[in-house]
Amino acid sequence: MRKVSLLLLMMLSLSGFAQKQNPEGRWDISIYRDGKEYPSWLEVYHSGHKRLTGHYVGISGSARPVSIIHFDDGVLRFSIPPQWEREDNDLQFEARFSGDSLTGTLLAADGKKYDWIGRRAPKLIRDKEPVWGDPITLFNGQNLDGWKAMGNNQWVVENGVLKSPRSGANLVTEQKFTDFKLHIEFRCPTGSNSGVYLRGRYEVQIEDSYGKDPQKDYMGAVYGFIKPTEMAAKPAGEWQSYDITLVGRMITVVANGRMIICNQEIPGITGGALDSYEGLPGPLYIQGDHGPIEYRNIVITPAK
What we know:
By secondary structure, this protein is mainly beta.
C-alpha cells in the first residue's frame, strides 16, 4: 500500500510539474505593426525545477537569450535588452497561454505597443530519406526571370553574373520549395555582407570573414543559431560556393568543398525571415540590403 501511495504522489507531482511546463516549446510568432504582419520566434524551456528561460528572435537581428520567463496564472512575461534597436529600452512581452497559442502584447524599445500571437512551431521531422527530383536552374545568367525584387530593384545581370552593386532590395524566387539541395556561388567584396534564406526563413550567412574564427554571425553560420565547425571562407573578391541540403529542420552546409555544418537542427526562423509559417514551402531569397554582392550558378534540386 505504501508503495502505491508513493507512486501516486510521484505521479501527481510530475503531473503538476508538467502542467507548469505547458508553455515550453518553440513558438512561431506574428507581430502586428502598423497594419502589417511581421515574423518572430520564441523558445521556452525549463532550467532546473523552478525557472523557465529561452531564446527570442525578433523581426531583425539574431537569436537573443532570455534569462528568465515568468509564468503565473496562465500569463507569460519576459523582457530582453535591445540589440539593433536604436533606443536603449528593454523590450517587454506579455501573453496569455492557451493550449497551442499565445496571445499578447509587445512594448517595443521605442515605447510603442504591438499585438502578437504565437503558434506552436511544427517539428518538421521526416520519417524517410528524401527522393531527389530533377535539378532546377534558378538563375538563367541572362535576366531576372523567375525572381522578384522586394522593393526598388538595383539588381543587374552582367556577363552571366547576378549583381547587386549597392545596398537595396532583397531578391526572392517566384517558386517555393520544401526540402532540397542547393548549389550557389557568390563573390563578396571587402567588408560586405549578404545571406541566402532557405524557404525564405533560415539565413545561411555570407560575409567577408576570411581569417576569422567561426562565429554564429560569420560566413557559413545559420545566422544566430549554428556556428560552422571551421572557417572555410576565401579572401574577399574571390568566387566561393555553398552546397546546402535542407530536409525538415536538418541542414548540412559544404562551403568551398569543406563540410562545415553536418546534419544539424535549425531551431527556428532567423531575423529577416519573410514569415514565421515554418510548416509551409518557401522561396529562396538572397540579401541585397547589406552591401554589394554577386551570385552565379544557382541550382536547386527539390525532393519529390
